[in-house]
Design brief:
CATH topology: Rossmann fold
Low-confidence stretches: 1-29
Number of strands: 12
Strand content: 15-25%
CATH class: Alpha Beta
Mean pLDDT: 92
Oligomer: single chain
Strand order of the largest sheet: 2-3-5-4-6-7-8-9
Shape: globular
Order of helices and strands: HEEEEHEHHHHEHEHEHEEEHE
Helix content: 25-40%
CATH superfamily: Alpha/Beta hydrolase fold, catalytic domain
Largest sheet: 8 strands, mixed
Radius of gyration: 19 Å
CATH architecture: 3-Layer(aba) Sandwich
Distance between the termini: 57 Å
């Protein structure tokens, strides 16, 4: 495969952008060793900063073509209107089959307000989709011959989505001081394709979906805070699966599940026609085998995207809230 030829002006812009990042390898919020406190009821106003650029990515004219444009990758940050300098963080990833969706979907904004009003910093991110034709490793192109032609482009969109979401996590660590985030208390979650990505973020190694592509092929990697590392404590899986991890194992032979994985919250409709309920059962079996904390909610009779589901009169945001607080040992007032 040919190296991507990027115009000099774009290369200079990338170098300039990457030089503006933090040089600190570890966030230095003064209260990192302290346990955050959140509220059981909404106590704070919600402040929102929209369309913050967390990195750049390439959007190719065709898959991995030499003709490519820079695409700014953006996220929204919701912060509580309080004076705390010790806040947990919740990073949420939208669904849409890696072909659509938005960080400002209504249900995501509802979750953002729920958690932020109780003391979290909530981050909702966009990432490259099928139409953006993000850069993919040659191994993925080789594997794609096994995929039906009408699904190949959607399949290839999985890689840049994981790459971008990981870049957003590194951005979070780099900017923890700005938003008073305690990086020892990070949750990731998502719905459908977003849950697939959230599971990948929590289970995969730091180098996965990062080091398979080199700088000469994709110089925008220099904008993704490569000097930062993150640790996820809890995963919230809403009707997702381990699809991206399965593909990684099939292509590279890497199996990443182990007893040190983050605690996992699963909610999945038993009649889901899009992501079969069996995918939730697979994750449940792995977690029980590895003896890792798990909350498992089969949503009886529900299909895909069951945002309005309740269990014992509690909605999914509340159930996930209780699980996160319990597993991370967060103080609750």
């Amino acid at each position: 495969m040919k190296n991507i030829i990027i115009p000099t002006c774009i290369l200079l812009f990338i170098i300039l952008l990457s030089s503006c990042g933090s040089n600190n390898k570890v966030a230095s919020v003064d209260s990192q060793s302290e346990i955050p406190t959140v509220q059981s009821t909404p106590m704070y106003g919600v402040l929102v900063k929209e369309d913050i650029i967390y990195a750049q990515g390439l959007s190719h004219e065709s898959i991995n073509s030499e003709s490519a444009q820079l695409l700014p990758l953006k996220l929204d940050v919701y912060t509580p209107d309080n004076t705390s300098d010790n806040r947990p963080a919740f990073v949420f990833i939208h669904g849409g089959g890696f072909a659509g969706g938005s960080k400002q979907q209504g249900r995501i904004i509802e979750w953002a307000n729920y958690y932020t009003s109780r003391g979290w910093v909530f981050i909702s991110l966009d990432y490259r989709l099928k139409r953006d034709k993000g850069t993919v490793p040659q191994q993925w192109l080789d594997y794609a011959v096994n995929i039906p032609k009408n699904k190949a482009a959607q399949f290839l969109a999985i890689y840049p989505a994981q790459r971008d979401a990981k870049a957003a996590l590194r951005w979070l660590v780099s900017n923890a001081n700005t938003y008073k985030i305690n990086t020892n208390f990070i949750t990731v979650g998502g719905g459908s394709a977003g849950a697939i990505t959230a599971i990948t973020l929590g289970i995969s190694n730091q180098e996965d979906f990062r080091d398979e592509i080199y700088g000469k092929q994709d110089p925008t990697l220099a904008t993704t805070h490569l000097d930062q590392a993150y640790k996820i404590q809890t995963i919230v899986d809403l009707w997702g699966s381990k699809l991206a991890l399965d593909v990684m194992e099939q292509i590279y032979g890497h199996q990443r599940f182990d007893s040190d994985d983050p605690a996992l919250f699963i909610a999945h409709g038993t009649e889901d026609p899009t992501v079969p309920f069996s995918k939730a059962e697979e994750l449940k079996t792995i977690y029980e085998t590895n003896k890792v904390p798990l909350a498992y909610y089969p949503l009886e009779g529900k299909g895909h995207g069951a945002w309005g589901a309740t269990v014992n009169d509690k909605d999914l945001a509340e159930l996930a809230f209780e699980f996160i607080v319990q597993q991370q040992g967060i103080n609750l007032e």
